[in-house]
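Design request, tokens follow.
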């Protein structure tokens, strides 16, 4: 408001604080536990026991499922596809082509990223780190910095067991001028307890938000706001597969042998004497030799398994008398269609092509147009989880660059969206794919050759047919100019005429003139 020519308004800090007030709670896309100011936090308890009680219970279930053979094979295939390590190249590189910074700053960022990889020991532990993130669904690293000399950057990155740490969001609420509850601030921090954090423990060491690197999976349960892992869908198929396999073993052991049925004629004996007579016959004629699988010995033992024993039935007077018949074993012991069904279901839950898990399916190095749709879907899945995993590098790089004063915090917020991380691809498939793409482009270029200069320009061909970027066009032009100068110098030294090589000049470069016969030495025509 204005009064006597003077303007009366709020302070700038009050304006910014008022602008942040909202009655909407913050996003919960990081799996943090959200509490209100002055409250407490915890986890719900499932009385029926059908669901995980907290994050610790979820991580235990994920780790148990990951040790199952079929699940472990699928996880190993995913990790090998996502992290490709060669002796000569780094598993991942930072790409700064779209970042609007000077070349000197880009070079410094590239060097600091290499230092980050050394702190993670990613060259030797890259597969283990990615597997741990994929199984647990989250990664935590504690940042150690020398407070007396912050410019030295990060000194060490220590792994934190996700069962011992939790991220907390403390929401500060108040009332606006109209008496409506609004969110006026958010305090974020971590709670660490070396004994583990579960529904019964809510105390520990409080860590600042900038001292911990947190890399979540990005999968959130919207009902309970719990961070899920990529193995969450596989828990049920793994348990079903275990149960089916156990039941199949029990059925095969119980139905595999052929058992005998003894019908014993007991005449008119009373019930008790008849039972005693049958027991005497059993103890007299049944086989007592037992094979001990633990020691490999054959011994005389009367402790037979009930499912392996013969059947002894009393028969009253007037029947057929004593009779011995044979009960045949199971006839369908070789059918495992149900096992294959649950195995395929497990692979589908993990987004792994079923053909990769079959031993009779070989790896083909043929044309890439023969790749199945499942392989394409699997490749896209790998690209998605790589982007989620890149948060691990981005968070460490942010702290490193700001600590060494290479960039300011406000500058990082502007360039973080333009920074990309390039993971190394599998050599065989990548080379085949790039070779086929380049071959197709050259074939199109040959077909367009008569029309270049009339309907299409060279610039259009470079950008839309050869798919060259601005940097590639400039670099190739520099190389062509350098080669042209080198060729002219060589022609001059050999006594020929320096001519234009025609590279980049048009579709039909001029041919070199024939050398002149009987030319005096040193004369240039």
């Amino acid at each position: 408001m204005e009064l006597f020519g003077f303007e009366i308004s709020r302070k700038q800090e009050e304006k910014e604080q008022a602008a942040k007030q909202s009655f909407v709670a913050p996003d919960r896309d990081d799996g943090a536990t959200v509490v209100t100011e002055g409250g407490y936090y915890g986890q719900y308890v499932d009385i029926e026991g059908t669901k995980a009680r907290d994050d610790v219970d979820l991580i235990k279930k994920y780790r148990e499922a990951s040790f199952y053979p079929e699940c472990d094979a699928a996880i190993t295939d995913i990790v090998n596809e996502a992290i490709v390590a060669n002796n000569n190249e780094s598993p991942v590189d930072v790409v700064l082509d779209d970042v609007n910074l000077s070349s000197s700053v880009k070079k410094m960022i590239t060097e600091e990223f290499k230092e980050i990889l050394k702190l993670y020991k990613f060259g030797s532990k890259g597969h283990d780190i990615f597997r741990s993130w994929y199984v647990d669904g989250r990664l935590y690293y504690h940042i150690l910095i020398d407070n007396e000399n912050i410019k030295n950057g990060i000194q060490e990155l220590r792994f934190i067991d996700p069962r011992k740490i939790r991220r907390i969001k403390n929401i500060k609420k108040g009332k606006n001028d109209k008496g409506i509850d609004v969110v006026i601030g958010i305090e974020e921090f971590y709670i660490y307890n070396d004994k583990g954090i579960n529904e019964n423990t809510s105390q520990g060491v409080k860590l600042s938000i900038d001292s911990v690197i947190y890399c979540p999976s990005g999968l959130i349960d919207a009902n309970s706001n719990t961070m899920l892992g990529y193995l969450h869908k596989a828990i049920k198929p793994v348990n079903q597969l275990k149960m089916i396999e156990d039941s199949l073993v029990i059925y095969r052991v119980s139905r595999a042998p052929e058992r005998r049925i003894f019908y014993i004629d007991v005449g008119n004996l009373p019930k008790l004497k008849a039972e005693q007579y049958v027991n005497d016959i059993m103890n007299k004629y049944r086989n007592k030799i037992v094979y001990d699988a633990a020691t490999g010995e054959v011994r005389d033992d009367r402790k037979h398994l009930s499912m392996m024993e013969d059947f002894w039935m009393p028969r009253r007077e007037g029947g057929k008398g004593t009779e011995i018949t044979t009960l045949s074993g199971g006839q369908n012991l070789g059918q495992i269609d149900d096992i294959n069904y649950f195995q395929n279901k497990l692979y589908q839950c993990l987004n792994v092509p079923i053909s990769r898990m079959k031993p009779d399916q070989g790896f083909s190095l043929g044309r890439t147009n023969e790749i199945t749709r499942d392989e394409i879907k699997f490749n896209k899945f790998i690209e998605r989880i790589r982007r989620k995993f890149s948060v691990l590098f981005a968070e460490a790089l942010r702290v490193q660059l700001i600590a060494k004063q290479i960039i300011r915090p406000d500058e990082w917020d502007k360039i973080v969206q333009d920074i990309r991380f390039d993971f190394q691809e599998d050599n065989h498939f990548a080379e085949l794919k790039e070779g086929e793409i380049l071959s197709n482009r050259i074939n199109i270029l040959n077909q367009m050759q008569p029309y270049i200069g009339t309907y299409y320009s060279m610039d259009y061909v470079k950008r839309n047919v050869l798919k060259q970027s601005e940097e590639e066009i400039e670099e190739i032009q520099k190389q062509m100019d350098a080669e042209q100068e080198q060729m002219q110098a060589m022609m001059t030294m050999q006594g020929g005429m320096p001519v234009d090589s025609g590279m980049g000049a048009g579709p039909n470069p001029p041919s070199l003139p024939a050398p002149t016969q009987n030319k005096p030495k040193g004369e240039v025509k």
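Comment from the thread starter after seeing the answer: thanks! The chain is about 40% helix and 20% strand.
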